[in-house]
Amino acid sequence: MNLDVLNPKIQEFINSNIGKAVSKLALQKNPFPTVEWIDILNQIAAKTKAKEKLPTWFSTPNIIYPSKISVEQTSSEKTALYKASIVSGENLIDLTGGFGIDDYYFSKQMKNVVHCEINSELSDIVKHNFKQLNTKNITCYAGDSLATLNALDLKWDWIYIDPSRRSDIKGKVFMLKDCLPNVPEHLDLYFSKSDAVLIKTAPILDITAGLSELQHVKTIHIVAIDNEVKELLWELHKGHVGNVKIKTISISKEKTETFDFVLNEYIEIPTYSLPLKFLYEPNSSIMKSGGFDEVGSFHKLNKLHKHSHLYTSDDLISFPGRIFKIENSIAYGKIEMKQFLENQKANVTTRNFPETVENIRKKWKIKEGGNLYCFFTTDENNNKIVLICSKLK
Q: Do residues 110 and 161 share a domain?
């Protein structure tokens, strides 16, 4: 940890260059030769990244930042705030502390929080930052978190883990056993220290695959920010068997949308229809959950097709996702496309459709943008159709 970057003149320089291209700044001469230029540039890059993601850190004086990639990989304050709403009690230990964003918010809910970080330099940075943030109920331990867990020999109200993928594991699909720490391998140990374990994973993890590796999963939280799924939270309780609850949370500047259901619980058989007056597209957290029949059944909507995951109704309802008024429904054919959409400006979405958005735009010369929203999809009779819509929400 280089405390020299806290020099008031260097801090002033860093703040005056927030948002500027570091690649261009790197070509300049270092105005502070007693400090490594790369250290100053890193503070500019990381703090720039923190401006939107970590506003509390950004607005607090004398914060030291780790590498830009560490800031990119850390939880946002929005997701950390939600995470903190899950836990309660006296004490929590975070076995993969990182930059400490989650622990800062956990400390608002818990009496004591322990931050474990194997990287001693990062641990020192986090400890320094917690002092700047006037947070007094978090203790930082550098080194192997399993050794810390055993050495403290306490019964914890919560254990929190954010396992990272090993660098040698490639591909889009991965298992928890391929991460560090290997949660499935250590699960018995964790439950000997706590009755409640909260695990954060990236949205890339398949829910079915995660359930096959874990035990005692009570709730899975799917958290999206601005309609992009950011993380899955696996809430495990010792001894729990049976139903798994799925909670979808979609957070935007305007509001927070939630939809909950019980995984694999019997629901009514979906009803299908041709497009009616309104069209509904579930938000990304619901799409990740796989609760397509559940959301349609709960809101008493008709599905367009078993695999299209679009819904329709004659009466306008409140819905967790985007809502459109269907202005026109046309067959996907040369004559219809030339008449209604060729050379037009429109927002294009495909759902259960054999062509990509890129190919559709190129084929029919459709420009991006405008007030038209076009859904290329398949109806209940397996016909390829295009729904031309105006957006209501």
A: yes
